[in-house]
Amino acid sequence: MIRPQRGSAVLLVLGAATSVQGGASVAKSLFPELGPPGVVFLRLLFGSIALWAIARPELRGRPRRELRLVAALGVVLVSMNVSFYESIDRLPLGIAVTVEFLGPLAVAVLGSRRRVDFVWIALAGLGVALLANGGGRSVHATGLLLAALAGLFWALYIFLSVPIGKAYLGASGLAPAMVLGAVLIAPWGIISAGHHLRDPQLVGAAVGVGLLSSALPWSLELEALRRLPTHVFGVVLSLEPAVAALAGFVLLHEHLRLRAWLAIALVVLASAGAALEVRRRDTPVDV
Prior knowledge:
Elements: H1 4-29, H2 31-55, H3 64-88, H4 93-100, H5 102-109, H6 115-134, H7 141-167, H8 174-193, H9 200-227, H10 230-237, H11 240-252, H12 258-282
Helix pairs in contact: 1-9, 1-10, 1-11, 2-3, 2-8, 2-9, 3-7, 3-8, 4-7, 4-11, 4-12, 5-6, 5-7, 5-12, 6-12, 10-12, 11-12
């Protein structure tokens, strides 16, 4: 039986995943006018403003090592967002997120010598193979490569988040990294969006993308982590490819083949299994 506090925390994680994928769906609807680079620019710009207001970071007097970590995170963030948005410009949302999820899955099993972890890798690999060979005309090879690249940057983001989390409180390291990312993508984003940046309706929708994709899910996940063990958080978060597929179906009218849904299920199973195995691996055994 799920405790009430834990049950509400699970709902918070699912709410965060729904917020992120809802934001991605809105972002994709803006591509015809703003282009993926334009949406990335506005997302990082408005997302960083919201997070800065929440976290109120203080960078004065910080050691150079800590500032370099923020700079590295900014480069990784903008690279991850550009590659992901370019991938969903070519792929259904659920398929892109499924392939992107290989990044955090690889981090979860990296360095493991347990045979069971190779089962999760095999399941995820089978899922991606199903997408590549039988996803239908909606599966674009370049889109798959861009989604995999986004997964690589997601893995780097996870690695950087550990030392940044130790050096900075809450989102006080993430907020300036997003500002740097917005500055780096600004020239490309402004050229991509062009005169549409003058359209208050489009810019307002981009503000929504920034809030749905950054500030709101970060707040929900932070609250969930206060109530949930990390491995449970990871298992629930592994449902995100399925949430993305549902968001694509409901909001973008993206219809996936049965084979694609099976591929998504395999990657979700692999991610959930890896999250549980990390918990067992990190739990000391009584002798």
